[in-house]
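Input/output pair, single chain:
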Amino acid sequence: MASKPKQADDSAPASLAASLAYTFKLFATDHRVLAQNGDGKLIDIGAIEHREKKGFVVSLDVDELESEPEASEKKALQNIASQITFDYLDGLFTSEDVTEFHGKLADLPHIELTLDETLPRSLTDRTPPHLF
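Output:
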């Protein structure tokens, strides 16, 4: 499941792999991690805790993804972001209920990440697939 944001599909040549970039935000609040998509939908995706002598750790509720301990909440969010793919996060937005937050999201520790959705080859390359 681990991958880096902005990574093209390895099965297609880089020149043929068309993609669409989507921006998401991750927020740390009250021991929870919230995610927001470009449409403004806000969902709860995991926990953030401070472990003594180690640092802040993000643990996502689905697939047991966990960040490395970091010195700040923002760095822990950046660490977990490197493990999240578009399909993973988009799937959460499809399946999770909206979370209500009262306050200013911009005042919370947060990061913005851009993930690429790679389009199927059938939409980018009109040549038939190679048959063996």
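Confidence is low (pLDDT under 50) at residues 1-10, 12-17. The chain is about 15% helix and 30% strand.
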